[in-house]
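job 3f2a | input accepted
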Amino acid sequence: MEPELKFYNRHKSDFETEQVYGVKWLRFIYNNPIGRLSLWFLVKRKIFSKWYGWRMNRSSSAEKILPFINNFDLDETEFLEKVSSFKSFNEFFYRKLKPESRPINRESGSVVFPADGRHLGVENISSSSRVYAKGQFLNLEKLLNSADLSKKYANGDLIISRLCPTDYHRFHFPVSGKLSEIQSVDGYLKSVNPIALRKNLGIFWENKRYITKIENPNLGEVIVILIGATCVGSVHISAKLNKHYALGEELGYFSFGGSCLITLFQPGKIKIDNELAKISNDGYETYAKFGDLMAKSLIC
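job 3f2a | predicted structure (300 res):
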């Protein structure tokens, strides 16, 4: 049995215990020999995700929306559209929110969280010895699919933003700038829930992902990696290449399931928010919403 999965809720200034969606099934596939076999043949090989995605796009899946809202106590007043307007569960899942429900921190030099979720800040990637579990290190070369790029960011900072199925699933620009590149890297679709990540951090560079680059006049090149996961074979990038975007504008959205973003900065460009850094150094994630302060630019 795994220990309690606790995280710090910035909006409540207190620690909470995470209720992992589908926890019984996840424990079965990661801790049971038969379950691990099903992980290999079905889940990580995309068969399960394609089948489940098809189910969530069917009109009959709309009947799951209200029970989901009630079970997880979601705030309908934040939704841009009425619940009755969603024709499938997936339409509800990647719903838009009213702009006022996610105010964007616009202080000078602000870098904001690109999505709702549980976030882990890693200062100086190369020297970090704790990412979800002791003894696990990030392999930047594999994550970025480039030896040259990994050298460029080796002593930089990153923030891992892990989204649960109950979260708002659109993601946004953490800084203003031009979307200069989108690279697709094929891979598996394994779960990015905390139970799985504590077993294998390599999920980040084994899964299908999109590496996007944003050119900012002060911070230079900022990378946002969009990682697919179980039931999330589709990462939808709505922003257009070579177009300039303001802080907080939409970059794209995930279809059904848990998912993850990783935001990387070159050395000496930012200072991760003090509270986020402290909680992360203690080994816990911080729950915060899109638009909240994530870091400050050191070059204004």
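job 3f2a | The chain has a mean pLDDT of 86.
job 3f2a | closed
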